[in-house]
Automatic annotation (TrEMBL):
InterPro entries: MFS (IPR011701), MFS_dom (IPR020846), MFS_trans_sf (IPR036259), Sugar_transporter_CS (IPR005829). Keywords: Membrane, Transmembrane, Transmembrane helix. PANTHER family: CARBOXYLIC ACID TRANSPORTER PROTEIN HOMOLOG. This is Putative transport protein, MFS-type. It is a multi-pass membrane protein.
Amino acid sequence: MRASSVSGLAAPSERDYEKNARKAIWASSIGYALDGFDLLILGFILSAVSAGLGLTSTEAGSLVTWTLVGAVIGGVGFGLLSDIYGRVRVLTWTILLFAVFTGMCALAQGYWDLLVYRTIAGLGLGGEFGIGMALATEACRPSQRARVSSYVGLGWQAGVLAAALLTPLLLPIIGWRGMFAVGVLPAIVSFIVRSYIGEPEHFVKSEPVARSFTLAPLKLLVADAETVRRSIGVVILCSVQNFGYYGLMIWMPSYLSTQFGYSLTKSASWTAMTVLGMSLGIWLFGQLADRIGRRPSFLLYQAGAVIMVYVYSQLTTPTALLWGGALMGVFVNGMIGGYGALISELYPRAARATAQNVLFNIGRAIGGFGPVVVGALAAAYSFEVALVLLASLYILDILATLFLIPERKGMELE
């Protein structure tokens, strides 16, 4: 057994420590998979929902928009609550909120009540990423922190893949209402798993005496000039990450169809290969970042993204487009595997979940304009021009990493 903690309670054994860490990683990964599963499910069934409720295209599109709006608001609010009241407790709140209102979507009778259910469900979704990352990174050893972050990041890809495989099979049988009901199941599984997890020892040892809501964690993100620099740097990294991801994933199937006459089957093959490339990139990023450091890994991937997005814009043959998409996916989305470790190491315990949720969701909000900008450039010029501009954004990423982000590999969390 380890030496007793400050509170006089015996610290967990090595075996218990590893067991708790594994449980935290699995639970956080399942939570993030839930995010990806739900958002992709909504995209797949949007046409069926529109037909069933008589929605206009504008109303249908707003369901996605307001889900993301709810996620941004929920990310900020639940991040603050998590730093005050605890990771596991608040995660349970987010899961319950998400589960209840996802289920309510199956009972919707029209546009307005469905819009309310989706927005409130989005609140719960927004809390998942940052709190889960904080929970997982606080529960693991410093030498494994980037790998743990990448495992949580892989949860999203697993959710996307599950939605892509299940929706075509289930939608004809159970309809869009049934699909919303299916969306409750991962939340129930996640809730059960998390009910067996305690707060990370790091959080418990340093938890403050006061337990009342405050904006103090938010203020810690801009506590001094050095912290402001870090926060700006992280926002730039997260914004470029999301801008590139959404810009590519939304428009590339259309690019392949209009430019090369790809059928739906070929576009699906491209998507599958790109997702596999992204998954490999996420896993590999965690391995590299724990060995060579956070900054070198980010710089390697950012340079790879500049090169591969540009190269992809020049490819013309089916084989090259298929394998080029996979390699591009490695670099464009692989960096998501490192944000959990990076942000956890840059901010103290009192603001860690807040930093994860606020900074990443600011990046998500800015990155949400990616499809709009790419679409506008493609319409005014060409998809090739849009992709070249997209590639150039990663140069901004490189500059932010070089001048605003410090290296904290292997350091104990504050």
